[in-house]
Amino acid sequence: MIATVTHARVRASQGDVFGALRVLRGVLARSPRDADALRLYSDLERLVPGVRQRRVRALAAWIERVRRRRGRRP
């Protein structure tokens, strides 16, 4: 895979913030001063706490649904 800022933007637009950050780390490993990559990385890093919180809430809801279903079955 060739890491590009465009690839990172596509991943981010699809909701894959962590994937976009991984791609950007590849870009920055090759070009540490890439202004577009640095800016996008900074913007996406600010989203991480919110993304993590949504993932935690989704996982907690899933666990609760599984528990309720198991409680219904003998």
Structural class: mainly alpha
Please bin the fraction of helical residues. over 70%
Average pLDDT, to the nearest integer? 88
DSSP helix count? Answer: 3
Sequence of secondary-structure elements: HHH
Distance between the termini: 49 Å
The proportion of strand residues reads under 5%
Rounded to an integer in angstroms, the radius of gyration calculated over CA atoms is 17 Å
Total individual domains: 1
Please give the largest β-sheet: none
Shape call: elongated
Low-confidence stretches: none
- The tally of strands reads 0
Could you give a short description of this structure?
With 74 residues, this protein is mostly helical. The protein has three helices and no strands.
